[in-house]
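chain below, 290 aa
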Amino acid sequence: MSSSTSLPLRGKTALITGVSRRRGIGFAVASQLAHLGADIFIHHYRAHDVDLPWGADDLDAVRDGLRAALTPGASFGDVSADLRDAASLPALIESAKALTGRLDILVCNHAKSGDDGSILDMTADRLDGFWQANARSTLLLTREFAALHAGAGPGARPGERIGRRGPFAEPTGRVFWMTSGQIHGPMRGEVAYAASKSVLAGLTKTVAAELLDLGIILNTIDPGPVNTGYLDPETTDRPLEELEAWMRATPFGRYGEPADPARLIAWLATPDGAWVVGQVLSTDGGLGLG
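prediction:
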């Protein structure tokens, strides 16, 4: 088997945001990309996890786990940042690029959760907090990533199309957004979270079309109900009877595991996944069919 087949991401650098817990989706994605040969740069913000029922992890253990997943010769780096601060976003992209001198893959896995509520609980500050953390930061990170690949050129007026740079022999970059279950039905008690994630699902085709002019592929992933700790009885933030009913409704008798969406993202990041563009893809084991 050739190295390009066995390690299809050799020479590619990936930035994965929201990697602060070994049970998280971000850790699983970073691990999968590392196994395929990628150089890995992660973002984390441990302060978000501290106040949640499932708690924070040991960041040194997170780093050690990802270094162990690297293939020989691959590099690793990390940085902490509150992505609600728009000023942190260009610096994050630059730090990731500085790891190897290039940045090929952006996985916007970070998300604010908790401190949500019903429509009666909504305030301007609560809505703004979720918008800034989940939607605005993802859009601005994508903008910074795209600017790396656009290169220098004449300034464009607001609303002016990017202009097609291709055709391209292969994608120049990959971007992954993460949405949630609001695309399948109600998410009671999670109005602010669902609103922020709906933005990303709704904008996928528009931004994907623009990025494609630069040779960049964007897809959005709905990972389904993945148990990262919030579905454990001892650390859940929802009623136990709801969890039990939910489990009985699952086709395979289990919730998703972080590796489930991670494997999809990893495949899409390889040359084999290059023909999938601008899609909102669910990986939920058929739970959305119930």
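The chain has a mean pLDDT of 90. The chain has nine helices and seven strands.
thats it, cya
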